[in-house]
Amino acid sequence: MKKAIIAISGGIDSTVAAGIAKKEGYELYFLTVDYGQKNIKKELENSKKLAKYFGAKEHKIIDMKWLGELGNSGITDLNIHFENVSDDFIYVPYRNTCIISACVAWAEVNHADVIYTGSEAGPWICPDNSPEYYKALNNLTAISTKLNKDIKIVAPLNDSDKVGNIKKGMELNIPFEYTWTCVARDDKACGICQPCRDRLQAFEKAGMKDPIKYVTEKDSKNYNSNIFLFITVLYVACILISNILASKIISVFGIAMTGGVLVFPITYIIGDVLTEIYGYKKTKKVILYGFLCNLLMVIIFFLAIKLPYPSYWHNQEAFVAILENTPRILFASFVGYLIGGFSNSYIMDYIKNNSKIKFLWFRTILSTIVGEALDTGLFLMIGFFGTMGNNVLFTMIICQTIAKVLYEVAFTPITYFVVKKVRKLEEEN
Questions:
Q1: Cα gap 25→8, rounded to integer Å
Q2: Whole-angstrom distance, CA of residue 222 vs CA of residue 52
């Protein structure tokens, strides 16, 4: 019977690869490597369950803790937390080559025909996952083996993403409850680290509920944390303050702008932090909460203005001038805020999860350009079209949009810092 060595970690990809090998009629030999990863307890536990499920002929556990002792990875180094905005922290230098080398050695003495490894489609964060790598490795194996020179190394999922792998696993009846992705914990999945977030999103897109347990349920993950609550309150506060300041017209280098430009861009920075850490779904709810609070403020102001006042009160006109807004301005504000806010958050989240572009600064700036342009353009067009010359109105739209984008650019280092800090705090909680 044909033999296949499976580099099994207990993750989705290696498990689906095992399922493919099983379907193709191979006798399975599992190999799991302990390279000092933080989640090794869970990886070993799940790998043993999977070996039993697939009826593996043998399951070897290889000690490579020396690999983790070399450091430089958040997966193995206890001193490195998952606050890094880059995906580089999940890279363990030369890990895959070391693991596959062990598989090749075992395949040679065991006269196995093929080695299956779980490696999904790019972008390949780890260079030893790409098709070019496997081509070179197969060439190396052909000239570096003696007892068995016909060993092939295959990555059957190298042209598929996580969603496709899950769908393939569903076809193969893969027991996803025996798989593990979290690189921060080994009891319950944290739901915060990037692999956890990618996994949750992939299951959602595949139309399947993730069967493993998380620290909190998916839909309420971190929702009630003090950190999330504080950020939400700060966001809403900035929305309310900016709308009050909008009644003040300021001049910056001779260019007329509303006073809201002083604080409103902060809401986009906060929105970027919310989207990056908690995802679009929760950020969308926060935006709606901001809208409802703003609506409540407008209603309360309206009632306060209309209520009678004593004769000795001499500030009614000033009160009205600052806090009263015409229905047109209110409508313009609401439309601009909702469309601009949703667009900013959606674009940032979409780029992160559906493109090869992983730079936080690129996502924040591009999403801000679109969001602020829509917000500013809609607000000024709806609120002031026909009340001033078109040239003046167009100039205000362009200048305010540019000013807000430059605001975002200038505060990008702060956005990076806050994202890192919030990630670390959520992980520690």
A1: 18
A2: 35
Bridge partners, 317 (sequence order): none
Residues 6+ apart with CB under 8 A from 80: 73, 74, 89
Q: In this structure, what token pair is assigned to residue 211?
A: 């069967």
Please report the DSSP string for 217-252 in residue order. -GGGTTTT-HHHHHHHHHHHHHHHHHHHHTTSEEEE
Q: Where are the domains of the chain?
A: 3-219, 226-428
Query: In which element (H, E) is residue 382 found?
Result: helix 360-384
Structure tokens at 304: 């306060």
Cβ 83 vs Cβ 193: under 8 Å: no
- The CATH architecture assigned to 3-219 reads 3-Layer(aba) Sandwich (3.40)
Burial of 357 (0-12, 13-18, 19+ CB in 10 A): exposed
Residue 27, φ and ψ in degrees, nearest 5: -85, 125
**Torsion angle in degrees (nearest 10) through CA of 402, 408, 410, 413:** -160
Q: Rounded CA gap, 38 and 84, in Å?
A: 17
Residue 106 burial class via C-beta count within 10 angstroms: exposed 0-12, middle 13-18, buried 19 and up: middle
Q: Of 37, 30, 83, nearest to 55 (Cα)?
A: 30
Distance CA 85, CA 73 (A): 14
CATH number for the region 226-428 comes to 1.10.1760
**If you search the block for the tokens 């190396």, which residue do you land on?**
140
**Predicted pLDDT at 88:** 58
Separation CA 185–CA 38 (nearest Å): 7
Adjacent-strand bridge partners of 302: none
Across 75-93, b (16+ Cβ under 10 Å) vs e yields bbbeeebbbbbeeebbbbe
pLDDT < 50 regions, the chain: 83-86, 217-224
Interval 123-173: pLDDT, tens:
556 677 788 889 999 999 999 998 888 899 999 998 888 899 999 999 999
Which helix (H) or strand (E) segment holds residue 328: the answer is helix 327-354
Count CA within 13 A, CB hemisphere, residue 123: 12
Q: How far apart are CA 242 and CA 262, in angstroms?
A: 8
Q: How far is CA 185 from CA 25, 65, 182, 285, in A?
A: 35, 18, 6, 28
